[in-house]
Amino acid sequence: MAFEVTAGAQAVGQTVEPAAKCGVWIFTYLKHKYDYVRNLGKNFKKLENEEMRLQNRKADVQNVLAANVGRMHITNECRNWFQQVDEKKDKIQHLKTKYRRINKYLCGLCPFPSLLRLGRDVVKETKELVSLRDQIKLENPVMTECAPTPPDRFRNRHAQKIDDLPSLNRHVEIVQDLLKQDEFKRVCIWGPPGVGKTTVMENLHDKVGQTSQFEVIFWVTMDNTECVEKIQRVLEDQLGLPVDEKSSTGKRAAKISEELENKSYLLFLDHVSSKINLREVGIHDDHNCGKVVFACTSRDNGNFCGPTDEDIKIEKLSKEDAQKLFNRKVSADIMKKQEIIRLAPLIVKECGGMPNMINLIAQKLAKVNDSARWRDTLLELQAPSKQPSRELEEVYQLFKLPYNDLDESKQLCLLYWALFPVGYEVHRDYITECWRAEQLISFARLGETRDRGHTVLDEFVNAGLLDRGIKARHYKMFEHFQRVALRIAKCNAGSHRILVKEGANITEEQWTCAERVSLIQHQLSSLPEQPQCSGILTLLLQKNKSLTQIPVSFFACMQKLRVLDLHDTRIMSLPSSISSLIKLRGLYLNDCGELENIPADIGKLQSLEIFDIRRTKIRNLPKEIQELTNLKCLRVSFEQNVSSHNHFQGNPVVVIHPDTVSKLISLEELSIGIDHHNTEWNNIVGAIVEELVGLEELTTLCFYFPGEDCLRPFICQSVSWNRENMQGNNFRSFNIIVGHHQTNNPSEFDISECSTEKHLRFSGGGSVPDTVLQILQHAYSFELIGHQNVTNLSLFGADRLGGLEICKIEECNEMESIIDGDMIGGVAFQFLKQLHIINIPKLVHIWKGLVSPESLSRLTKLILKDCPSLENLFSKAHGIVQQLVQLQHLEVEHCLEMKEIIETGSDVSAALPKLKTIELRNLPKLSTIWSEVSWEWPSLETIEIRECVMLKDLPSTMANAIKLRWIRCTSDWKNELNWPSDPAIKDRFQRMFVSVYQQ
């Protein structure tokens, strides 16, 4: 029984033990499954964390790849890893969707199997995320070195074609020729916004790119930020250089320089608006085959990229090209309508030859068949409304952007230009005086105001808002900007506060509200009797040649008027109401050719600072001028009937009353114009000089001293000239004429190119007074006329000639050379830009003796006339031609013994590299310009030949002048030329000839 029990127990035990183990296993299994469910939330959070870590690892790897783009390429392992990461992202997103759906169930209501499967998948994917992340580590190679990418030689800009627009395309041809010459490494292309600089640059870029001249050509469009870095990025990209954004610009510049050092390359920089140090980019001057062409708005900005070898101004389109460009954009069928044929040229004219504006307007009208819309466009261009059309908004912004960068006072100065007619050129001194009168620029001294005004004008030019005029020291606003300026001015001041009229008369209401009125060139013949305009500040009536009379009460209500301009009208007198202008600061009566007197009421204008009465019929200054104690600038001329007492209607007239000049205690600028032939001036000049010497504020003087006897008191006693022992340095400008040459009137002489207006003319005499030498030491331009004894200018001393920029010598009968280098013993004329030599009968040398290296090194213009003894302009004995490295214009006329321009045998290995123009007239014995036919004449563009019958070898002499475009000559002379054997030379020259009539 016991055995049975024991056996039974053993049997049971053997059964229970496996069952127990099975139960434990089942329990553990169920518990593990339940853990998937119980820890689902925690495990899901871990999944999200690991996913985030994986994505971070992916981003880090991508950064490594980006930093080595171009230098290395991605491994296959890394590429597969990216693919797995993307696939895993999709799976994780699927789990997130299931998890969010389960969370919507109420507690306990979700089926356990679903929870179990989700929990298991979450744990599984988490492990796989960790494993996937660990497959790629940053220290493992994910990239391998790749073969260097050859640089992109050229990336076409697909420029707008301009081959049929000669006035624009010629700039492309000029620069293309320059780039073929080794010495031109840096070229500036400049002009106002919208004139076509980018179009020229792009055409140049594409045309050069079609040649094999450069191994690589770059293009960078600049902005106002990170100039150096931006250029470096473009160069690195195109050269295929490795980029390390963490590397300094200096290290990157070194790599770029190393890469370019032995390459021929061309870099285009468009829209340059600030200084760029190209060395910091990696562009060096010692890159012998590297060149840079850049575009900016002003020639004054030409040093933005360092010194330039050539500056090319982009001019406005010609009338024909402007119309051609416009017609390109407009449907040919539309251009056949009679009314549109009439309107199109008027619209094109208002675009001012600016390609950008022409394109905008043409695109606007390209498919417009309604002539009413064409008329409306013309009206908008002529008188822009307050809200410009979409097409004109771009032009408006070209003005508005730089305008907004100005401070308020400069904005007002710029908007003052809205008072002038479109295209009107304004002298810099005049506009500065207007600004001062309206207190837009305010300094105690007039000279300081002028200096600031010149600075402001230069700033406007540099910003592309103004352009320099054709006349020296004149400025003008671009036509399309002028309209915009007027619109802004009207918006700022109200539509009736500024009145600029071109046709209609001003209404009484407009006079009442006006602050500034411009009726320039308005063909006025009459004015209202007494306009009610108590708020008017500026009134511009100049150039109305039909205006002969001003009503008596016209100025009665203009007590606030600051500027009154009546110049170049035909008024015969001023009304008594002129006395009402108690705030007037600037009064302009110059060129009023019928004005005979100034009323005594002028003395009541106590605020007057600028008074201009040149070139009138005025015989004398009224005594009341003495009362103008605030007058700072007086410009007057007595060019007829000057004497101590003119007789007018039987009564003696005092030209300038005693003490008049001395009582003008604030006077800074005095100009008295006199007809030098009138010897009566000699009787009164002494008394005027006595008063002149006491003016303490004087800094500008234009005055005629008939002889040294009246000059000496001024030089020795003038308080202003001798202030603090400065002896003339205190003077901002002067035009001093000493002596008079009786035989002939001096030829015209333009001193406008001088950097400062300090001019001395010394005429006649047999000696050189020390007073003249003292003035000469401060002069920038000098005329020596009719001296009886001087044999060369060396007698004046090198130190006194050193500052001259322009010099003219005329009718000095004993002069044999201009400079004697052995006598002067050093540098002479080192700053001279122009040299005029006229009617010197004994002249046999320009320069005699030793030539120092810097002498004449800045000379740009040489004019020689009526020198009958001169046989060679540049003789081989003195080597002067080697000095003329800046000479651009050469003119030789009426030299009857002249045989050669450059004497045969001269050393001209590097001579005349910038000579552009040669004019030769009436040289009957001239046989050659230079006998060396291999000479290249690298810059020569134009030749004019008249009455040079012996000069027949020009085709051979100029065969290598690659930039030569025009040869102006008579047909008879052309037909007598000797031609070289090469027919191509004759074909080329035949295209250059322009016939002129024999003088």
UniProtKB/TrEMBL annotation:
Could you tell me the keywords of this UniProt record? Answer: ATP-binding, Coiled coil, Nucleotide-binding, Plant defense, Repeat
User: Which GO BP terms sit in this record?
Assistant: defense response
SUPFAM superfamilies to which the protein is assigned, alphabetical: L domain-like (SSF52058), P-loop containing nucleoside triphosphate hydrolases (SSF52540)
Instruction: Give GO MF terms, alphabetically.
Output: ADP binding; ATP binding
Question: Which residues does the UniProt record annotate as the domain AAA+ ATPase?
Answer: 183-332
Does Cell inner membrane count among this protein's keywords?
A: no
Which family does the record assign?
Answer: Belongs to the disease resistance NB-LRR family.
Name this polypeptide is given: PREDICTED: disease resistance
From what organism does this protein derive? Prunus dulcis
